[in-house]
Amino acid sequence: MTGFKPLFKQMFLQKVRYAHLVLLVQAFAVLFMTIISWLTNDEGNIFIFFYNPRDYNLFDLILGLGWVTTIFADIVFVALLCWQNEKINLSQTWRLVPVSSIKMWLINIFSSLIQCVYIFVIQLAIGFVVLLLDFLSSHENLAPEIKSFFGLSRGYSWSDFWPFLEFLLYLVGICLIIFTFVSFADLLTRTITDQLPGKNTTGIKILVMAILVIVAVIIAFRFNDQMTVMYIRHAMKNGNEGYVDIIAIAIAEFFGGSVLLGIIDSYLRHCQIVCVNRFFS
Fold first, then answer.
1. Which of 62, 123, 171, 181 gives the lowest tally of CB atoms within 10 Å of its CB?
2. What mean pLDDT is reported for the chain?
3. Spatial distance between the Cα atoms of 232 and 226, rounded to a whole number of angstroms
4. What are the tens digits of pLDDT across the range 124-182?
């Protein structure tokens, strides 16, 4: 059996090029929009909402553009990872690796999750450098702002750090539920179309996947409504009706759904591998 480390390293190296590509495109996009802002006057500047023209600061503009482009860059990056995940799941070459299907699927998902952390840390580091340059250019001290942001000026407290950690858990949960759901939709679609008579055309696969996605989204919204109602009732029963942490509910749903979909995905992938082995034996 192949170990975890070599498989993870190989998958990581396959996917890291997409991170570098997305970061490079984002950097060019920010550079292009910054140049456009220089070539236009304040009245006609399409990026005027990123900074105050009366108190123009180049780093303010770069920081604003970087923040907005990061949202789109991360969406594209997650889509690329989903595509790469399914390529690995369906690859005949990867199926020849002497490792269990469940282990292979877990390494695949985990390597994509680490890729999300990788690109997020790079974007965060670049943003911090630009923010530091912004404060230095305006001759302001960044340290008090950092202490105020984390509440360090009044001493350490878990409640000060929890919103930031909760936000990170929320991002991790979103990535996990997206990866597991895309695999679920793809594997289940292929399992269903393989049982249909006649040729499994691309149109039929797209139709089956669309139906599965619609049904899954409806079920997810219904489940979310029930979970929210149950949480609110529990909070009111314990005298906490004034505080409802919706983010915590979403995190619990994301991680719980990821575990459930992960179990189903592993089973479907195992069944497909067994069917393929029987077909070629």
1. 171
2. 77
3. 10
4. 999 888 878 877 766 666 665 555 555 555 555 556 667 778 888 889 999 999 999 99
pLDDT above 50: residue 274 = yes
Is the CB of residue 188 less than 8 Å from the CB of residue 269? Answer: no
Tokens, residue 245: 């942490």
Helices (H), the chain: 4-39, 58-90, 92-95, 101-137, 142-150, 158-195, 202-237, 246-280
Which of 82, 14, 117 minimizes the C-alpha distance to 6? 14
Q: Are 191 and 271 in contact (CB under 8 A)?
A: yes
Rounded-to-integer distance, Cα 159 and Cα 223, Å: 29
State the Cα–Cα distance between residues 8 and 109, nearest whole angstrom: 10
Residue 70 and residue 19 in contact, taking contact as beta carbons nearer than 8 Å = no
* pLDDT computed for residue 101 by the predictor: 75
Q: What is the dihedral of CA 140, 142, 143, 149, to 10 degrees?
A: 130
Burial (CB count <10 Å: 0-12, 13-18, 19+), residue 110? middle
For 27, counting Cβ atoms within 10 Å of its Cβ (0-12 exposed, 13-18 middle, 19+ buried), the class is middle
Residue 60 token pair = 């303010």
Angle at 176 between CA 146 and CA 29, to 5 degrees: 60
Spatial distance between the Cα atoms of 88 and 14, rounded to a whole number of angstroms: 10
Predicted confidence (pLDDT) at residue 280 exceeds the cutoff of 50:
no
Residue 100 has which token pair? 């269990």
What is the C-alpha separation between 260 and 268, in angstroms, rounded?
13
